[in-house]
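Q: My labmate handed me this sequence with no annotations at all. I'd like to see what the chain might look like in three dimensions before we decide whether it's worth expressing. Could you predict it?
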Amino acid sequence: MLETEGSGAAPATIDLQAEYRASGVAEVLAELDRELVGLKPVKQRIRETAALLLVDRARRQLGLGSTTPTLHMSFTGNPGTGKTTVARRMADLLFRLGYVRKGHLVAVTRDDLVGQYIGHTAPKTKEVLKKAMGGVLFIDEAYYLYRPDNERDYGQEAIEILLQVMENQRDDLVVILAGYADRMERFFQSNPGFRSRIAHHIDFPDYSDDELLAIARSMLDEQGYRFDGPGQVTMRDYIEKRRTQPHFANARSIRNAIDRARLRQANRLFEATGPVGAEALSTITAPDIRASRVFAQTQSTGEAP
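A: Here is what I predict for the chain of 305 residues:
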């Protein structure tokens, strides 16, 4: 809310809380809370960024000197920790505050940007950038763009185009680079141009066992299912064991486990004799989970079924 001293004059004061409510940012943050369990440090950083942008907008409205803040970001963390979801909400937040024109998210990997032969990379990269303009470009596993061990790799060409656009068109595009923390650090060391253009580095922690169990319950609830008592206890046991095995991917691994538990439940009910009711059709039990090879302590090169 603006208060002015006279007709045609610049506002004298701005009610930041009123601006916050009117902008719809509160709705974006509430949606983020509903979508993602935990991640308190991440959510706090998003709120702080929203506050920065609200203050920046207020300064412009009061006629104070202001330049568009650098909004390019780096999201680091293990798979399945919500990086893409947060990027989507960030795009919505930036749109509501007027920092991007469209508020859409374009999510890509190296294969979407880098060609396989001479003259192929530039058109691919520019086409992706064209689609992303006015919104947010999310590059997952960004470090794969740089492969110094391969002299015939064309990733460097994509990097040079990206750097140029991140600098010259930062008023119309926000780029978020994502990946494992250690690999992203080596990537930034090898490509200092990216580090100098990124102002916000946000680390996504792994979920705790309690948070993963809450995620499992939420996923079932969204699909009209639930655990019975023993099923929930077994799911907690599954989480503890699965975490220690190869290729654990936080919420992504939990989603896979839920999908397989539903598959086993369906087969169990199909093979049973007699009619079944809504309760049986909607309940995941301990045997539906314990049939997983995770409980046999097998090691696999892929995610354990």
